[in-house]
C-alpha cells in the first residue's frame, strides 16, 4: 500500500499516458490483434528496449504510420521475456515519444509460442510481419529494415 | 547452332533447378557438421576436429553484448563444468561484426573470458563463415553435436532452457535433457527449440 501511494504520488502524468498506450497482452490477445480483419495494412513489429537494431529502425515505422492512413503500426515489446518490469517500456515510449500502438507481450517459455505467431521466425529480433488486412496475405522479415523497405514490403502484398 | 541451343537449354535447366531447390539455411538436426578452425581468446587456433575423442561438443553461438547472452552467461559456464567431464565440453563462438557491435571485438572477448574465468574456448568467427554454415540466427544459440567415430552431426538446435529471465524459473533444461538422452543412447526428447534473442550482427553486404 505504501508503495502504491508513493508510486501514485511520484508518477508523472506522461508516464501514466505511456502506460495507457502500452497494453500488456497474452498470446491469445496478440493473435486476435494480428488476425483481425481490417481495410488497412497492418505492420506488426517485434522489438525490445535492449535491442539496438530495433530502435534504429523504429523511426521508419513511426513515419509510415503517421503519414499513411491505410497503414496501422503496432510495436510488440518482448521485454518481459527477460525483465518482468514493464516500466522500462513505459519510460522508453515516453522518452522517444512513440506515437504508434504498443503491446507488451506477457508469456513464458518462448518455444511454446514463437511458432504460433510465425513459423518462419527464429525468435531473433527485430522481426516484422506485414499483413494485408483485407486478404490476410502476409510477409515476414527477420532483420533490421532501412529507408524504403517498408514501402517495398507493402507493395508486395497489395 | 545446335550446340548453342543445347548450351542454352542446359543453362535454362540449371537456372530452373537452382530456383526450384530451397535455399539451404544452415544445419538441421541429423546433418553432418563440417570441420572449422577459429581463433580462441588465448590466441591459439581451435578446430572442431580437436574434439575427435569427446562424445560430443556443445557449440554455442554467443557474444559479450546481448542481454540474453549476459542472462545465460553463468548457465553456460555451469554447462561446461557439468558436462565437459562427461564428454560434452562447451565451445563458444562469437559471430558478431565488431564494426556494428564494438563491444564484441576480439579484445573485449578476451576481457570477458578472463573476467568470467572461462574454462572453455571462446572463438572469434571473424568472417562469420561458421555462423553461416551452422545457420545460427541469434545469441545464445546452441548446436549440440554428437561424435560418430570422428564425424560430428547435429543432435539438438535451440535454446539452453525455457526461462531466460532467471535460472530459478526453469522448467525445461533443453540442452541438459538432450545430452542426458545421448549419454543414455536415447532419442533427444525435443531436438529443436526456439527462443527470443539478439539477432547476429552480420557484416553489411
CATH class of chain A: Alpha Beta
Our estimate of the beta-strand percent of chain A is 15-25%
Strand order within the widest beta sheet of chain A: 1-4-3-2-6-7
Rg calculated over all Cα atoms of chain A: 16 Å
User: Count of helical segments of chain B?
Assistant: 5
CATH top level class name of chain B: Alpha Beta
Give the rounded overall mean pLDDT of chain B.
91
Count of separate structural domains of chain A: 1
Q: What Rg of chain B is obtained from the alpha carbons, in whole angstroms?
A: 19 Å
- Mean of pLDDT of chain A: 92
Tell me how many strands of chain A there are: 7
* Number of strand segments of chain B: 9
Under CATH, the topology of chain B is which?
Glutaredoxin
Distinct helical segment count of chain A: 7
Q: How is the quaternary structure best described?
A: heterodimer
What is the rounded distance between the termini of chain A? 53 Å
- The residue fraction in helices of chain B comes out at 25-40%
Low-confidence stretches of chain A: none
Number of structural units classed as domains of chain B: 1
SSE topology string of chain A: HHEHEHEHEHEEEH
Task: From the structure above, extract its key features.
A: 158 residues; alpha/beta; Glutaredoxin; six-stranded mixed sheet; B: alpha+beta; seven-stranded mixed sheet; two-stranded antiparallel sheet; 5 helices; globular
What this model shows, in words?
Chain A contains seven helices and seven strands. Chain A is globular. Chain A has helices at residues 2-10, 13-21, 27-35, 52-67, 87-96, 114-117, 149-157; strands spanning 22-25, 41-47, 71-77, 101-105, 124-125, 127-132, 138-141. In chain A, strand 6 and strand 7 (138-141) form a beta hairpin. Chain A has a single domain (12-157), classed as Glutaredoxin (3-Layer(aba) Sandwich). A six-stranded mixed beta sheet of chain A has the order 1-4-3-2-6-7. Helices cover 42% and strands 22% of the residues of chain A. With 158 residues, chain A is of the alpha/beta class. Chain B has 205 residues and is an alpha+beta fold. Chain B has one domain: Glutaredoxin (3-Layer(aba) Sandwich), CATH 3.40.30. In chain B, strand 4, helix 3 (106-115) and strand 5 (122-124) form a beta-alpha-beta unit. Chain B is globular, with a radius of gyration of 19 Å. Mean pLDDT of chain B is 91; it is low at 11-23. Chains A and B meet through strand 5 of A and helix 2 and strand 9 of B. Strand 5 of chain A pairs parallel with strand 9 (197-199) of chain B.
Amino acid at each position: 500500500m505504501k508503495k502504491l501511494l508513493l508510486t501514485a504520488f511520484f508518477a508523472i502524468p506522461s508516464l501514466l499516458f505511456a502506460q495507457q498506450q502500452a497494453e500488456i497482452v497474452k498470446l491469445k490477445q496478440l493473435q486476435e490483434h494480428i488476425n483481425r480483419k481490417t481495410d488497412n495494412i497492418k505492420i506488426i513489429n517485434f522489438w525490445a528496449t535492449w535491442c539496438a537494431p530495433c530502435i534504429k529502425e523504429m523511426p521508419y515505422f513511426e513515419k509510415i504510420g503517421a503519414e499513411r492512413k491505410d497503414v496501422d503500426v503496432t510495436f510488440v515489446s518482448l521485454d518481459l521475456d527477460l525483465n518482468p518490469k514493464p516500466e522500462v517500456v513505459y519510460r522508453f515510449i515516453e522518452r522517444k515519444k512513440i506515437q504508434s500502438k504498443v503491446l507488451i507481450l506477457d508469456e513464458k517459455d518462448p518455444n511454446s509460442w514463437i511458432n504460433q505467431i510465425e513459423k518462419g521466425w527464429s525468435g531473433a529480433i527485430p522481426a516484422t510481419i506485414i499483413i494485408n488486412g483485407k486478404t490476410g496475405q502476409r510477409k515476414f522479415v527477420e532483420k533490421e529494415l532501412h529507408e524504403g523497405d517498408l514501402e517495398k514490403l507493402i507493395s508486395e502484398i497489395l | 547452332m545446335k550446340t548453342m541451343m543445347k548450351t542454352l537449354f542446359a543453362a535454362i535447366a540449371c537456372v530452373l533447378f537452382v530456383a526450384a531447390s530451397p535455399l539451404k539455411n544452415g544445419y538441421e538436426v541429423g546433418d553432418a557438421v563440417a570441420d572449422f578452425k577459429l581463433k580462441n581468446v588465448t590466441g591459439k587456433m581451435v578446430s572442431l576436429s580437436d574434439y575427435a575423442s569427446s562424445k560430443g561438443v556443445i557449440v554455442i553461438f554467443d557474444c559479450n553484448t546481448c542481454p540474453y547472452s549476459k542472462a545465460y552467461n553463468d548457465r553456460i559456464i555451469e554447462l561446461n563444468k557439468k558436462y565437459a567431464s562427461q564428454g560434452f565440453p562447451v565451445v563458444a563462438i562469437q559471430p558478431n561484426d565488431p564494426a556494428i557491435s564494438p563491444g564484441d571485438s576480439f579484445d573485449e572477448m578476451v576481457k570477458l573470458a578472463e573476467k568470467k574465468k572461462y574454462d572453455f574456448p571462446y572463438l572469434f568467427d571473424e568472417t562469420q563463415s561458421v555462423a553461416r554454415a551452422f545457420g545460427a540466427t541469434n545469441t545464445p544459440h546452441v548446436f549440440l553435436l554428437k561424435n560418430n567415430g570422428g564425424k560430428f552431426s547435429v543432435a539438438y538446435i535451440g535454446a539452453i532452457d525455457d526461462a531466460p529471465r532467471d535460472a530459478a524459473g526453469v522448467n525445461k533444461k533443453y540442452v541438459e535433457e538432450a545430452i542426458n538422452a545421448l549419454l543414455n543412447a536415447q532419442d533427444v526428447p525435443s531436438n529443436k527449440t526456439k527462443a527470443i534473442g539478439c539477432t547476429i550482427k552480420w557484416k553489411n553486404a
